[in-house]
Amino acid sequence: MKKFFLHFTLIITLLTYSAQAQNKISVTNLQCEMLNNPEGIDVLKPRLSWQIKSDVNDVKQTAYQILVASTLENLNANQADLWDSGKVTSDNSVNVVYNGKKLGDRQNAFWKVIAFTNKGEIKSTDKAHFSIGILTYADWKSTRWIGYEKLSKDDSVSQYSRLSARYLRKEIDVKKQVKSAKVYIMGMGLYELYINGNKIGDQVLAPVPTDYTKNVKYNVFDVTSQLKEGKNMLGTILGNGRFFAMRQDYKPYKIKSFGFPKMALQLFVEYTDGTNEVIRTDDTWKLTTDGPILSNNEYDGEEYDARKEMKGWNTTNFDDKNWVNARYVQEPGGFYEAQMTPNMKIMREVKPISIKATANGTYILDMGQNMVGWLQLKVKGKSGDQITMKFAESLQADGLLYIANLRDAKTTDVYTLKGEGEEIWEPRFIFHGFRFVEISGFLTKPTLDNFVGKVVYDDMKTTGTFESSDATMNQIFKNAWWGISGNYKGMPIDCPQRNERQPWLGDRTTGAYGESFLFNNQTLYAKWLDDIKYSQTQDGGLPDVAPAFWRYYGDNVTWPGTYITVGDMLYQQFGDAEVIKKQYPYMKKWMVYMEENYLQNDLMDKDKYGDWCVPPESLELIRSKDPARLTDGELISSAFYYQLLGIMKKFAKIANADADIAHYGDLETRIKKAFNAKFFNVDKNTYANNTVTANLLPLAFGIVPENVKDKVFQNMAHEVEVTKNGHISTGVIGTQFLMRTLTNFGRGDLAYKLASNKTYPSWGFMVENGATTIWELWNGNTADPSMNSQNHVMLLGDLLIWYYENMAGIKSNPETPGFKQIIMKPDFNAGLTFVNASYESIYGLIKSDWKKNKNTLEWKITIPANSSALVYLPTANASDVKVNKQKVDKNSKIEKNKMVLELPSGTYQLNVNNIKQ
């Protein structure tokens, strides 16, 4: 869209620049690589970002100056010995690339920014920090991997694998006063780190999972305050995680395992006298497997015997004579990388709402919410008493747990008491997806106070809120929040409860886009693109699951194509061009691989899953068997490949690979021609067998010839509105584009009907049947239990995108990615009477709060500083519009009977009379 200047004057009272106004503008939220004060990054030219916050309107950055120093003292004295950018004329406040002195291993950097705006000069009061990690493999050469690669007495390598936790300790002597100390740790599969008995960091289930044969993540902690002069104790506990796979010697052709837990650690200590010391893992560390964590298996649960607790094991002066020396072990094989996304944390707590006795002497605890994490237990009893907790998402008609949908996952935690007053316990190395818990072992009836639910997901901010006049839509939004958050586990997984929990690509093709409005998921998905890249075969193939914990390399378009669509989301929502440059060669390699192997007669003949999870004709079926409901796989794969070609043209330009654009364009032309020749019915103006998905994809992707576009849409809308009686008939593929396409063609009312429906099949049907997350199947309460997870997100499709972009009117202009300019164009006539939504973009908070009352509209909007918005109003008459109680110019821009205002940053009250219905 060409920039235009509106021929109108907004008579708005703005504060003129003064000391008072200056105090209302600040520079805040300084980030490096979109992380807050990260330790141990492995980017030598990191990107720096900041936000400008203001209570006054029309604040634009005109220039910036970044100061980076090697010490905080230097920075405070404005001695930018690493980089002084000087005053740079630019409105860019996001992803400014560091361009100072070369940064080396373990380099500390402290920085601040001065933003020059049209309202004056603002200095950041925050002083940010980042440090460089260990950059080369050689720098780890003197650090050995240690562990214990044997089974203990009660361990087993079987379908239901059991392996006790490894406890390691090392006493060190700190002989001088410590100036600074940092620890670098790779603990596979999961670790907890202690110094002098204190846990380091608030992370859980760390580090994030990878294919450890390809890459291994290290975490870095500043432990200066934890070390003292004299004797100190380093201690770690190693859990199994994805490293020692949940299923051993069971389908080895499918399930990947990496061996026994192991770790490598370096502690760098700098003394006040200028000398340094490095403490590393070696065979002088002591180890035992005879601790209280008897088993930890993500599918089956954690078993803990408090009688085996080793008081003071992670402090000095502990008697470890019965411990053995750690063994040197083989390294995992993957390259060592800094973890550039936060770990998981306990993000909130949930109090249970009821506890009821069962006929068999157990108790059923109801958390009131399908959640992901674990249960903290408080209990008193005798030594040797056992409390067993089994987790499930729902109940049977008799009030007992419904576990058929868990497949062979045991989902059970067992705690054995030591018998010393009140005991408080929670697991360390597992998680469960659950609402209900069967409790056994209490000698008297437990109370709600005995339990607290701990909600665990990646440490990321909730960035979006949404409320509307429709209660069903509001509950769907809440259900989506719980489902999305619960399935963030260092990678996006499909479900958290059964024996799967895998990072399926197809679940997030468009879902990641919608999720980005609710969560600041940028670093998570940038990491996941690396996972996908590492999973690529030498000839270019991509799997359906990445990291490839399951070896599902079957080739199709829709699932692996997520590699490209998620990259597009990161660019569109966060303005991240670097991730495109980094991934482009591998994306291109896959596109070429698919073209050379599966493009036949200019159509892509490779589809594995079809329109997955179309609502079936029977409530008991998992998948429809009715050919009239199923969409041709060649149509799906060809349409999707066509769409990906369009994205790749954009990526090629970003990646300075302009020579590729012509080839992509040629393929687009050929596929479009062949597609219409084969699938378009010129007599009926429909595609293939006239399923909604068959017509929807060519409409959404721009394949339909212009002269018949409206006719094809009318046929599709008829299928939705009349044939399906206003209900969903699409699966995972079609639902990704359904809501936006209906709205873009003028049927937002029909999209609203789908969003607010309460009968089968619909999102509201899930709500009406007690769902507090999103189901895997439209009939997830009745389908065959082998596949009816009650916490999946793939069926959300583009619903959340539609909530924000089409109902709230919060959309990033594709020509200015990352919300530098916002398109605020709600569909006021879809059926809602009010929407109140917000989104914390990379520039700051965006708000849209509108209310219709008969033929008037009240709309409050907030546009963050250093950005702007195109605001569309439902009238062509300037006399009907007021902005902050002032009239607008009668020559304001009109576009398709809508007035378009270009507003700078700030908060505005818009009132429109005689709105166009």
Automatic annotation (TrEMBL):
<feature type="domain" description="Alpha-L-rhamnosidase C-terminal">
    <location>
        <begin position="809"/>
        <end position="885"/>
    </location>
</feature>
<dbReference type="Pfam" id="PF17389">
    <property type="entry name" value="Bac_rhamnosid6H"/>
</dbReference>
<dbReference type="Pfam" id="PF05592">
    <property type="entry name" value="Bac_rhamnosid"/>
</dbReference>
<keyword id="KW-0378">Hydrolase</keyword>
<feature type="domain" description="Bacterial alpha-L-rhamnosidase N-terminal">
    <location>
        <begin position="176"/>
        <end position="347"/>
    </location>
</feature>
<feature type="signal peptide">
    <location>
        <begin position="1"/>
        <end position="21"/>
    </location>
</feature>
<dbReference type="InterPro" id="IPR035396">
    <property type="entry name" value="Bac_rhamnosid6H"/>
</dbReference>
<dbReference type="InterPro" id="IPR008902">
    <property type="entry name" value="Rhamnosid_concanavalin"/>
</dbReference>
<dbReference type="InterPro" id="IPR016007">
    <property type="entry name" value="Alpha_rhamnosid"/>
</dbReference>
<dbReference type="Pfam" id="PF17390">
    <property type="entry name" value="Bac_rhamnosid_C"/>
</dbReference>
<dbReference type="GO" id="GO:0030596">
    <property type="term" value="F:alpha-L-rhamnosidase activity"/>
</dbReference>
<feature type="domain" description="Alpha-L-rhamnosidase six-hairpin glycosidase">
    <location>
        <begin position="462"/>
        <end position="807"/>
    </location>
</feature>
<protein>
    <recommendedName>
        <fullName>alpha-L-rhamnosidase</fullName>
        <ecNumber>3.2.1.40</ecNumber>
    </recommendedName>
</protein>
<dbReference type="InterPro" id="IPR012341">
    <property type="entry name" value="6hp_glycosidase-like_sf"/>
</dbReference>
<dbReference type="GO" id="GO:0005975">
    <property type="term" value="P:carbohydrate metabolic process"/>
</dbReference>
<dbReference type="Pfam" id="PF08531">
    <property type="entry name" value="Bac_rhamnosid_N"/>
</dbReference>
<dbReference type="InterPro" id="IPR013737">
    <property type="entry name" value="Bac_rhamnosid_N"/>
</dbReference>
<feature type="domain" description="Alpha-L-rhamnosidase concanavalin-like">
    <location>
        <begin position="358"/>
        <end position="457"/>
    </location>
</feature>
<keyword id="KW-0732">Signal</keyword>
<dbReference type="InterPro" id="IPR008928">
    <property type="entry name" value="6-hairpin_glycosidase_sf"/>
</dbReference>
<dbReference type="InterPro" id="IPR035398">
    <property type="entry name" value="Bac_rhamnosid_C"/>
</dbReference>
<dbReference type="Pfam" id="PF25788">
    <property type="entry name" value="Ig_Rha78A_N"/>
</dbReference>
<dbReference type="InterPro" id="IPR013783">
    <property type="entry name" value="Ig-like_fold"/>
</dbReference>
